[in-house]
Amino acid sequence: MSQIQHAVPIAVQRCVICGFDFGTGLDDCVTHATELPELLQETLGKVDSAAVRHRLAPWEWSMLEYGAHLGEVIPWYLGRVQQVLDEDRPQLQPMDWTIEAEVGEYRRRSVQRVCADVDQACRSLIAMINSLDDDHLRREGIGSDGSPRTIEVLLTRADHEIIHHERDLRRALDRLQG
Ligand SMILES: [Zn+2]
């Protein structure tokens, strides 16, 4: 008896929190990555050193932590993309970013370092996108949930990180200034 194929594609097209459209193209990702470094520098520069490290709620990161996370999550996605380019349908490993933020002491970093990391990460993201053709974008790895994940999906997820956390940064700034 043949096995019934019951897996369906993920139907969620938009993030319910930030509204990011997962059907958006990688051109938008390049735009977002081009704009992020300046936007981050401006946003973090609007509050003092204590406020930038302040968590408004125990379950939320401070502005600096969101920035530090962006500086690490973008290269992390690029590492996954490189793995899918180098290997035949590799099994991709998940990452616990709550632990990373603690172990990496995001809150103790300087604003200057966080901005430099994000600047470098965005440059690498843009360079990666510009280096790929359609065949590359269709290559697949296996996600932690066992489903195939194309390079295009991995890059779109990196784009979502940018948009989602820009919203977190704006909201934190509004409340700190409010
Ligand atoms: Zn989102």
UniProtKB/TrEMBL annotation:
Organism: Microlunatus soli
Lineage: Bacteria, Bacillati, Actinomycetota, Actinomycetes, Propionibacteriales
Keyword Isomerase in annotation: yes
One Pfam family named in its UniProt record: DinB_2
Protein name, per record: Mycothiol maleylpyruvate isomerase N-terminal domain-containing protein
GO MF annotations in UniProt: isomerase activity
Swiss-Prot/TrEMBL keywords: Isomerase, Pyruvate
Residue ranges constituting the DinB-like domain according to the UniProt record: 36-166
SUPFAM superfamilies: DinB/YfiT-like putative metalloenzymes
